[in-house]
Structure formats: C-alpha cells, structure tokens
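Notebook p. 47: complex prediction with iron/sulfur cluster.
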Amino acid sequence: MNYHRKTAFGYSTQCNIKCDHCVAAEDGIEHRKIELNRAREIIDEMAAAHVRAVSFTVGEPLIFLNDILNLVRLCHRQGIYSRVVSNGFWAKTSPHSDEIVSELKISGLSQLRLSFSRWHQRHIKRENILNAAVSCHKFGLEYFISFVTDFSDTDDALERFLNDNRLKFFPEPLLYFGRAEGLNRSQVFTDYPPHLCDMNPLLSPELDMYACCDAGNRFSETNFFFLGNLKEFTVNELFEKYERHPLFNLIKTMGLSNIASFIGINASEIVRYRKCELCAKLFNSPENLKRLESAVQSDLKSWKR
Ligand code: SF4
Ligand code: SF4
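Predicted complex, structure tokens below:
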C-alpha cells in the first residue's frame, strides 16, 4: 500500500472564462459535474484507501464555492491535504478576496494554487492574482502561483509583475493539449534532461480515472493513461493498477529520454522534444507502445547505468 497517494479531483469541467491554451475544456462538449453527495462518498472512499492529498481542479472549482467548501471541510476531517486550483476571478477587490480566502482557510483548505498566464490574463485582471495572494498572506493560507508560459519573451512583462510584487510563483510549461494544440510552438532545444514525471492521477467528472492529470484522455490513439471507472472499480483498485503499472513506474524512475533512446530515437531528435510531446511520441503510438509493453519485463528494465 502506498501511503503517499494523491489525486487531482475533477469536480466539474465548467469554467467562467475561455482561455486559448486550456487543456481541461473541450469545445462543443457539454459541461459535466459530479453530484455533491457522490463526491462526498468518493472522498470518504479515498480516505479509506489512504489517499492523502486531493487537488480540486479541471474547470474553475470556485464557481461552485459552497460545494467546494463542503468538500474541503470533509477532506480536513478525513486528514486529507486539500488544494484548490483557481483562476482568481473572485478576487476583483481586496474585501471580496479577503472574504473568499478566509472562508477557504476556515474550512480547512491546505493550499490555494492560482493560475496565471497571458491567456488567463486576457480575461482576469492581474491585480486579482495580487489581491488573492495578499489575502492568503493575511489569513495564513499557503498559496503559490502557477505561471504558465511558452518560455517566449512575450511573457517577460507578466513575470516582472510577479517579481515586482514579490509573489511566490513557479513557471510551468504550456502543454499543447486541448485548445492549446493549435497554438504556435517555438522550437526547443534541451540538453537531454531525464524527463522524469511523477504523474499525478486524475479523477474526471465522469468518474474515469487516469494516470496523468495533464494528458488524461488526450492520448486518443492508445488511451494509455486510462485506469478505469469508479462505477466498476474501487478507488483502491484503481490506485493499485496505477501503482503496479510497469511503464508508469519507468516514466517516474527511468525517465522519458532514456526510454526514447531505448526504442531507437536519436539523441539529436530527443533534445528537440518538450516532455509531454516526447511522452506522446512514446505512448500514444500503438507501435511504440506495443514494443515497450513487450520489453518492459526484460531488456527495458535492465536499461540502466
Ligand atoms: S481558467 Fe483554467 S479551466 Fe478555465 S479556461 Fe482557463 S485554463 Fe481552462
Ligand atoms: S510527461 Fe507524460 S505523464 Fe507526465 S505530464 Fe506529460 S503527458 Fe503526463
């Protein structure tokens, strides 16, 4: 049993804005949401299965403020670390921001993760993020800002805003899934990083569980990350599938670059891939996946220094 189980919890796909880079929303697909009582049952089941951290994400969770407060209180009672990922739409003014942050804090929220990028900030003023961060500081709620960027200098001014205001932020690479698939990609050159990935699992509003919260159902050629649905399996069974999967374990420990070398992709090509794109090249190709699945118990396992 793994006592460090954690999961992204997709309570709803609904969002109040429409970012051009969104990996969570799909155009033309109706929004889905878990019923509150069902979500409570799942959190109880997660607690019994030793899940120790839940991150409410996918759409904008705080559209459903009362439901999320309810679920955060339950996590707190169950000893589960809780995080909410939010675009900060509710922090238009300092008093309003204080009100929401204090409610989250009183309910037992462990951490607020604020999303920030040139795509988010077309819809939400950057001052909202500042207000929210100041409120977190005031009420003692841990927070950080996830600064999504394509690493072009277009984002320098936004980053300067975060720096000038001494906000706690971490740059995160733009993922070219969902709506972002059509965005221009600048060429990247890395220096053969291991590309290890710790693969946070995701529960979707349809109760499907995936091994990766970022790609989820995006590897449509192979459905590589799909673990099963909660209507057919228990939380514990789905986590066991995730934890025992030999290729998921190699993504975490061996890393994607070494796996790519193993199947014969030249190093000169590997250094041109972003991490998730290399992952797609390996595991969203039926041919590559078949090779890796048959090698995983033999040659691939011993491919180490
Ligand atoms: S705020 Fe998040 S969920 Fe909403 S559209 Fe933007 S990226 Fe998607
Ligand atoms: S590298 Fe693969 S497993 Fe990790 S976040 Fe990207 S798509 Fe998911």
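Notes: The pocket of iron/sulfur cluster (ligand 1) is lined by residues 15, 17-19, 22, 24-25, 59-60, 87, 115, 120 (CB under 6 Å). The two ends are 29 Å apart (CA to CA).
Next step: compare against the earlier run before touching the bench.
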